[in-house]
Amino acid sequence: MIEKSPLFIAIEGPIGVGKTSLANYLASHYSAYLLKEIVYENPFLDRFYEDVQKWSFQTEMFFLTNRYQQLIDVQKQYLNQNFPVISDYHLIKSLIFSQLTLDLNHLTKFKQIYSILESDLSMPNVIIVLNASLETVIKRIKKRNRDFEQNIDIRYLEMLIESYHQFVTTLKRTSQVPIIELDGDYYDFVKNPEDLQEIIAKVDLMIHKEAHNED
Predict the structure, then answer these.
(1) CA–CA distance, 18 with 141 (Å, rounded to integer)
(2) Could you say which of 92, 103, 169, 213 is the most buried, measured as most Cβ atoms within 10 Å of its Cβ?
(3) Contact 111, 102 (CB under 8 A)
């Protein structure tokens, strides 16, 4: 990845934890462009949730290339013009999901393509990772009522939640991008303004710390 932009915050986490809701709040607070992931446009998604093994490679490749193109477009139009961006995903999401669903042969190819694409992209100033218990994730998936998500295998969700825990541990050890990890069982920033303000304070502190380190 290339150098950090002046303000680029990416939000990550398992399905249904509230990434887009938090991204909306932060984009409003920081007067930033809101980048939302393409979901419904993936033509393989319905079939993927019905038969993960059969449709995983097509699904993950579609998401990877579309996420990449979105991020490249935003980089050119906003980040390169010093305009702040809040994104409800990061490209690394593709790597996390692919490791759960792809067989070894497909995963090897996928990682090669991922590595090439990732090298073109700006690094976020901060990555916020929202995590939550399986119970909370299931409750929120049901609440937002997306048709294609209603048949998700519970075991898949359990593995996804665990993958994000492992992702945070690895990223904190190896990445230069600072991580803010938030407990989605504890924070309810949609209903409680105090929770949102606490999260914003954490982000402000991290941004100012990073700016000081760069100086």
Answers:
(1) 10
(2) 92
(3) no
CA–CA dist 197, 85 (Å, integer) = 19
Whether the predicted pLDDT of 214 surpasses 70: no
Q: How far apart are CA 52 and CA 155, in angstroms?
A: 12
**In the predicted model, what is the mean pLDDT of residues 127-148?**
86
This prediction's pTM: 0.89
Reduced to 3 states (helix: H, G, I; strand: E, B; else coil), residue 92 is: helix
Joined tokens for residue 126: 């901060």
Which of the residues are catalytic?
A: 88
pLDDT (0 to 100) of residue 201: 96
Q: Render pLDDT for 172-195 as a digit per residue (tens, 0 to 9).
A: 888 778 999 999 999 999 889 999
59 close to 38: Cβ distance less than 8 angstroms:
no
Within 10 angstroms of residue 83's Cβ, the number of other Cβ atoms is: 16
Provide the residue ranges of all domains of the chain, joining segments of one domain with +. 11-209
- Report the residue count for the chain: 215
Nearest-angstrom CA–CA distance, 46 and 42: 9
C-alpha distances out from residue 110 to 60, 116, 187, Å: 9, 10, 34
* Residue 59 reports pLDDT greater than 70: yes
Residue with tokens 């067989």: 103
